[in-house]
Amino acid sequence: MPVPLLDLQAQYRPLRDEILAAMTRVADSQRFIMGPEIENLESELARVLGVRHAIAVSSGTDALLLALMALDIKAGDEVVTSTYSFFATAGAVARVGARPVLVDIDPATFNIDPDQIAAAITPRTKAILPVHLFGQSADLDVIMRDAERHHIPVVEDAAQAIGATYRSRPVGGIGALGCFSFFPSKNLGAFGDAGLVTTNDDALARRARLLRTHGMEPKYYHHLVGANFRMDALQAAILRVKAPRLAAWTAGRRVNAARYRELFRAAGLDGVVTLPAEPTDRLHIYNQFVIRTPERDALKRHLDEQGIGNEIYYPVPFHLQPCFTDLGHVRGAFPHAERAAAESLAIPIYGELTADQQQAVVSAVASFVHSRSACGISARQP
Length: 382
Ligand SMILES: *Cc1c(COP(=O)(O)O)cnc(C)c1O
Hints:
382 residues, globular, binds pyridoxal-5'-phosphate, 12 helices, 3-stranded parallel β-sheet, alpha/beta, Aspartate Aminotransferase, domain 1
């Protein structure tokens, strides 16, 4: 039984009529830029995320860029962030001319190691940028404590973590600014690119809104040099159909994660492949379900042959990327991130996944492990 990594059709089918009606509403209005769809989406998402301000933007990448611009971060400044994330996190820092100061991860959660942040802070540090990777919050209390001690704002990269909580508080509203992505493969996906910036700070919200439209207020009077970071009204209309379903979709992903834990245990694999850690003080929304094994590359080849969807997130940490050689890091600088890059593999976790499909995924992993031990190769390495 082939199982895709993600099945967007399964989510779309039951919503098709409602989504096409929303798209028709925008087409009939011929209002494509800003307007009521954007305003309604912003107030609906602000309520869901428990924040004063939600600012709809063109992508998750632009959300990060806009957040850093709202904080006036520029050349000569430093931003402390994780070396292990999607490229946009460090890319946005470099794009405003600042230097990404990289920190290793906690191998249990794949998130920035909070105990290594203090040592990375210098007088030039203008923000700390933790990522809630794969849908699980970083250890925000420790991060916020360091940030407050040094009066440095925290920008949360919550692109993969909409609806995740840390000690019962939704992520994105804990730091000074939160950044979300509605890329189609995220838990709340648009029909193209879209994103969101959140904040509880009225002044930062005002700056972010200005910067979103070339710093313009009123028309053709420019107070700041911003850019065009607007979300399309069409994307907002589509997201308004999907957003009320997010909590149910998250619950579905969490049910699937719990079922994987049972199936891996029943197959005798829970010590052979490492399953994602789930600290009890944070709600994981499982944008990805990432397992680890030292034989990752061979497992990947096996799953590919069996038609089981899988993906490596991410094969190269920032400090080893060709575009960041000028940061001067060598291989071995951040050993936990390097090991995660060599060992991690995402398997299907989307909400519409069936128990039979999950069994097929686990059986495929089991047949790999058994074939390896039959050859005298232990699946578990020291
Ligand atoms: C997806 C993602 C982004 C960027 O979002 P886009 O909407 O694709 O621009 C940023 N950070 C992380 C961690 C992401 O996963």
